[in-house]
């Protein structure tokens, strides 16, 4: 499945996890198997938003390109273009990281 062939629905987001830090501050290299999956990533695609009780669309607060923070066990992992990405609901995003 190619990234261009998936369009998130409602309030869902497609997020690419950030690469994990492979070295500690003191210079110790952490193997991939020992490191935890990062809890932040970059939004690749955003759905149009969910609807309120009157049927009006509620625009999402995040946009493609935003760096977001999410819960450790949030979302569903899927493979796109041979890479793992995360499908999250907007309410699973804890915040947007400003640069």
TrEMBL record:
Alphabetized CDD domains for the sequence: cpn10 (cd00320)
SMART domains given in the database record: Cpn10
UniProt-listed PROSITE patterns: CHAPERONINS_CPN10 (PS00681)
Primary subcellular site in the record, as a coarse category: cytoplasm
Keywords, alphabetical: Chaperone, Cytoplasm
Region described as Disordered: 1-36
Bilayer-spanning residue ranges: none
Role according to the record: Together with the chaperonin GroEL, plays an essential role in assisting protein folding. The GroEL-GroES system forms a nano-cage that allows encapsulation of the non-native substrate proteins and provides a physical environment optimized to promote and accelerate protein folding. GroES binds to the apical surface of the GroEL ring, thereby capping the opening of the GroEL channel.
Family annotation (PANTHER family): 10 KDA HEAT SHOCK PROTEIN, CO-CHAPERONIN GROES
Name of the protein in question: Co-chaperonin GroES
Protein's organism: Pseudorhodoferax aquiterrae
């Amino acid at each position: 499945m190619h990234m261009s062939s998936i369009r998130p629905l409602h309030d869902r987001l497609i997020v690419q996890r950030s690469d994990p830090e492979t070295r500690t501050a003191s210079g110790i290299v952490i193997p991939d198997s020992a490191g935890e999956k990062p809890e932040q990533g970059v939004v690749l695609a955003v759905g149009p938003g969910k609807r309120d009780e009157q049927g009006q669309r509620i625009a999402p607060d995040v946009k493609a390109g935003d760096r977001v923070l999410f819960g450790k066990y949030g979302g569903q992992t899927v493979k796109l273009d041979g890479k793992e990405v995360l499908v999250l609901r907007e309410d699973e995003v804890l915040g947007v990281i400003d640069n």
